[in-house]
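Usage

Read records sequentially. Each one opens with the input sequence:
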Amino acid sequence: MRILLKLFLYIIFSLIIGIALFFMWAGSGIVSKDKLSGINKYSDDFEDPSQANNRFKIMTFNCGYFSGMRNNLPVRSSRKFYMSNLNVFSDLIRNIKPDIVCFQEIDFNSHRSHQVDQSQYLSNHLKFMYNAFAINWNKKYIPFPYWPPSAHFKKMVSGQSVISMFPILNNKRIELKRPPNPFYYDKFYLDRLIQETQIRIGDKNLIILNIHLEAFDRNIREEQAEFVINYYKKIQMNRNPVIILGDFNCVPPDAMKKYDFPDEPGMDHRKESTITIFLEEESLSCASAGIKNPKSTFPSLSPDRKLDYIFYTRKYIDLVRTDVFNINSSDHLPLMMEFRMK
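and closes with the structure output:
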């Protein structure tokens, strides 16, 4: 009996040690901290962007790692599936010809999307000369979706990206406040970021704040919004044109529907101030005037709410038009602003 008890305790102890070692290994990063952001320049032979009429196009797209409506579902999609979604988006870009495209949830080297650097693929495939990246999910093994294990994301290197026809001069990665998750959950949670990218257009430096705010904790999302606005005020003192864009994970204050969404029954945006914080900043305008397609950007299959936004400094930028495009490459729809520099 004593031998059986010792054997049982030994097995339990070994399991605990094994789980602890796996936890530490899986939650550690693949990319070193000094390489979590950077700038890539591709061939100088790429076609120069047109500056006719001083009009430019910028797009924001939560591409959901090009998983379509399968984002975060417990399925393992083929490489062909992801490449098809990348190419559908590529066809859209060839048609509308934006000068700058900003991504959230784009994969750089992840098991779930078959180790394709999606940002580099699009830069090369579409002949964008510059590419800036900011990694916000850097783990050796993500055990999600929880079941079945065959659908686990596993190796994860993902984040935000800006591809540009114009020179990218600088690129910074600024971490936002984290929600108070349990330690075992927080170990595998992604960072929420500001990706600050400085782009040279003619004789002006355009600063882009590419953001992806907290999705599940309303209080933290509001605190992140306050931080972004305060950060914007500091850089805006240099009198450069600034565009803030990305996935804000919140509906506007005048939205007809703010809760009881079929796909997110627990989400409630009533009394939330996230978007109001940006709308109340006097130097900013929201690129929604003149939009000719539905304002809703999520979910892409049957959009019923706006989660993606573009704000800009009205002193230095004039809005020409704004469009939302219906494609099925992600669970979000891409949002584009055409503008002039003053």
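Summary fields computed downstream for this record:
- The radius of gyration is 21 Å.
- The longest strand covers residues 130-142.
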